[in-house]
């Protein structure tokens, strides 16, 4: 029972770190990366659709993204979604595809992005801690119903704390590497 709780907590914490890693790919670093816009939701015939499901996205140059929709009628909707997003990019539409030039980041913009990264890292830490809290609650329920002994619960909590510390460290590593990437000129 304790092992099941620990395994489940491990999976959830791992997913929290992966979600953070994926979330941070959408923060631009001055280099063109399709991950920057691929999860952007576009209002496609009244349905919010991720951009990567309606267009091919490529980075032919270090500072340029090219978005080629499969349906050219969706160009205006894609352009509108990019302008509404918090990316701070201005699309250039030529009737067939959209070019997104990635400008150099100013020092002020870099600092703002670092703050965004830190906020998301904190959300990642909170997700890991919430998982720990839920697992501890499960262990307490098992102890209360006499399914496990007090010693087993204590051992489970110690292992759970080690797991939590490990994943908090992972969250920190992901965040600090993204901060370094942003601050790199």
How would you characterize this protein structure?
The mean pLDDT is 88. The chain folds into two domains: 2-25 and 106-183, Topoisomerase I, Chain A, domain 4, CATH 1.10.132.20; 34-101, Gyrase A, domain 2, CATH 3.30.1360. A four-stranded antiparallel β-sheet has the order 3-4-6-5, with helices on one face. Helix 1 (2-24) runs antiparallel to helix 3 and helix 3 packs antiparallel against helix 4. The chain contains four helices and six strands. The protein is of the alpha+beta class and 185 residues long.
Can you describe this structure in just a few lines?
The protein is α+β, with helices and mostly antiparallel strands. 57% of the residues lie in helices and 15% in strands.
Helices and strands in order:
Layout: H1 2-24, E1 41-44, E2 47-50, E3 55-61, E4 64-69, H2 75-84, E5 92-93, E6 98-101, H3 107-144, H4 150-183
Antiparallel strand pairs: 1-2, 3-4, 4-6, 5-6
Helix pairs in contact: 1-3, 1-4, 3-4
